[in-house]
């Protein structure tokens, strides 16, 4: 196992400097502190200092756990990473980005070596395995998204209400037959919260309105997605509205609609759920934007509050963003659930309707 001398040699500092970084007992330059933390991460060093010393140290760093599959690109991940970093900086915190595909190993390394004071988890799953690790290590965290079983602070768009709102507004415009392009199959299989809640919203709104809402599971393969969507668009009875939650392949989706000889919104109304705010390519469509800035501000505040009474940057969670409330779960962990709002042009009526 790596020793403090190994860490010092890797970072190019004296062993005493490594001790100072770990304990926070002396002021160390940011460059030196980052070099020591990088060496700890590379070597997998776990300090043997007393728990009291480790608890007293403050790195003023939040770890942002954003699992990534190499080669896969999601614009929403980058937007959240930037906005969470901006929000953390407003509280005097830096952000350490962790991209392990499962996130468990990275969280263990960060928590045990005290590279950060708390974690922010993205791509939250139902019964997320990372949550168990956080509880096991007693490491503070907040969730960007929510797991109803996590008993941790969280913030999220109310995805069930968002999809239900899109269905109800479409019905109000005169649509009775519509498609719901849900999150991709792998997101549903991973039990991502937004994917499951979106499906619940479509089913609830269909039952409430009596509309024919056919669920089309999306797919990360654009060819499979195009084939599924084309089959659904040409099936009888013909749908007049398409509600889309899986927006990563939106350009390909719109190409498929055009290839089927359908013009938006004259032949088919397209409504987006979870679009990026201010994205120029979606402004001509009725939509429910994902409140990235509000969620980022809320999750940074919740994560910093979770660090506990040892922090020195402000009052506890009584200063939560507007709309936060106490959870009904036994843990009473604070949360910030954001209600959806329609944006963009009004939903057009179906063909033949004024």
UniProtKB/TrEMBL annotation:
<feature type="region of interest" description="Disordered">
    <location>
        <begin position="307"/>
        <end position="354"/>
    </location>
</feature>
<feature type="domain" description="HTH lacI-type">
    <location>
        <begin position="2"/>
        <end position="56"/>
    </location>
</feature>
<keyword id="KW-0238">DNA-binding</keyword>
<dbReference type="InterPro" id="IPR028082">
    <property type="entry name" value="Peripla_BP_I"/>
</dbReference>
<dbReference type="GO" id="GO:0003700">
    <property type="term" value="F:DNA-binding transcription factor activity"/>
</dbReference>
<keyword id="KW-0805">Transcription regulation</keyword>
<dbReference type="GO" id="GO:0000976">
    <property type="term" value="F:transcription cis-regulatory region binding"/>
</dbReference>
<keyword id="KW-0804">Transcription</keyword>
<protein>
    <submittedName>
        <fullName>Transcriptional regulator</fullName>
    </submittedName>
</protein>
<dbReference type="Pfam" id="PF13377">
    <property type="entry name" value="Peripla_BP_3"/>
</dbReference>
<dbReference type="Pfam" id="PF00356">
    <property type="entry name" value="LacI"/>
</dbReference>
<dbReference type="InterPro" id="IPR000843">
    <property type="entry name" value="HTH_LacI"/>
</dbReference>
<dbReference type="InterPro" id="IPR010982">
    <property type="entry name" value="Lambda_DNA-bd_dom_sf"/>
</dbReference>
<dbReference type="InterPro" id="IPR046335">
    <property type="entry name" value="LacI/GalR-like_sensor"/>
</dbReference>
